[in-house]
Structure formats: C-alpha cells, structure tokens
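Attaching the record inline, Q. Sequence:
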Amino acid sequence: MASAHEGKKAGYIGNTVFQVTAEPSQLAISCHKNNSTCGIIENSKVFSVSVLQKELDTSIIGIFGFMTSSEIDKFSNIKHQVFSTGAPIVTESTVAWFECKVVNQIDTGTHILFIGEVVDGDVLSENEPLTYQYYREKYRMLAPKNAPTYIEKEKLSNETLQKIQTEKSVMLVEEEKRDLGEDYSCTICGYTYNPADGEPAAGIPPGTRFEDLPDDFKCPVCGASKEYFHG
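Structure, as predicted:
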C-alpha cells in the first residue's frame, strides 16, 4: 500500500486488504497509526494497492515491511509508476495494482481502516500472488510490529510458540539436522535462516550451514549482518 502528499511518498507491506463492495468497486486497507503512510493517506485521501507475486526479491519485504518512510525514500530503487491519483504504484514483482480515492475511514484504535473507491487498476502478470500464509511458511517470521496480526512474543502461549517453531522446521531426519546445524534467526526482523533451504536468491545453496555463510552475509529481509543472528 502506498500514497503521496506534497512531494512525500510512503508505503508499507500490508496483510489486510479486502473488497467491500462491487458497485461501486471499493477496497479496504488497515494501516497502523504509527505508520508514516497513515498520515499521508489521511491528507492525500488516496492510496494504491500493489499485489506482490509469490516469489520475489525479499529486499522488497525488508524495505516496505521493516523500514520507515520517515527516514528513507522506499521508492528510490524500485520500479514504480504514478497515474491519476498521484499515489505511487509498485510495478516490480507485482501481479496487479489498484489506485483508490478514500471515501470513508474508521478508527479501530491502533489502526485506521481506509475504504477507497477503485478509480483504476491493471493486471501485470499471471504469476501467483503472495499470501500471508505463504509468507509465514516461507520466511518463518512473526508479523512486523505495526501489522494487524502482531502479537508480542512474550504474550504468546507456549503452545503457540511451539507451533511456530514446528512451522519453521523442515522435514529432515534428526541426523541430517545435526549435520546441517541449527536454524539462526535475525534479532531485528525475525527472519530465520534454515540451512536446509539456504538462500538461493542470495547465491546461498540449500544445505549451507550458518557457520559456513560468508562474513558479509546479510539478512535478506532487513539487511542486518550476521552478528545480529542467533541460534
């Protein structure tokens, strides 16, 4: 999701977008009040939705999901376009996009639910879209702090934590797990490096132990160095 006002662009990764009505076509998005994008949408009265594809460069998730538009220009190194509403539309690794004008907003406490009438849109590819379920299973991460689904780790029950840990494991026999070493998690964003999966997008083949990663290895989501990982 993204918007722009008085020359300032902002955007974030959202896991809550849904259709409200068909005639007229309306979408609703949920935006945390602490997100820079929230204030910009309130002022501009427009927003865009870019539907990301299932397989993508994880740096997009890192930039739009774990960094703030108040400190960096998230659009400086990513393909995007601007049409009638002025809201930037990410076209890199994007399946489809919509741009909307805000017709209503609802304060839900921590978040604002923006309801927008669709004024334009397009389908860019036939690739599968990224879903929240796939994001959880693929990257084995908890939700970012400002996400509607965020829960403080300390408040999660032991049963829930155990379930998350189970989701993070791969189907390997115990001997193979010992040979490859344990998973390592980024303390900044929660991304988990699994030796069995490797990180092919970064040139790290499956079966690479964490200890064997190059010294300049960085978290593919938030860019943190190896020193910020723990097993």
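Residues 158-168 form the longest helix (11 residues). Residues 2-123 form a domain with the Pnp Oxidase; Chain A fold (CATH 2.30.110.10).

More tomorrow.
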